Amino acid sequence: AQKITQTQPGMFVQEKEAVTLDCTYDTSDQSYGLFWYKQPSSGEMIFLIYQGSYDEQNATEGRYSLNFQKARKSANLVISASQLGDSAMYFCAMRAEDSNYQLIWGAGTKLIIKP
Amino acid sequence: EAGVVQSPRYKIIEKKQPVAFWCNPISGHNTLYWYRQNLGQGPELLIRYENEEAVDDSQLPKDRFSAERLKGVDSTLKIQPAELGDSAVYLCASSQGGQGSYNEQFFGPGTRLTVL
Question: Is the peptide bond before B81 cis (omega within 30 degrees of 0)?
Answer without folding.
Answer: yes
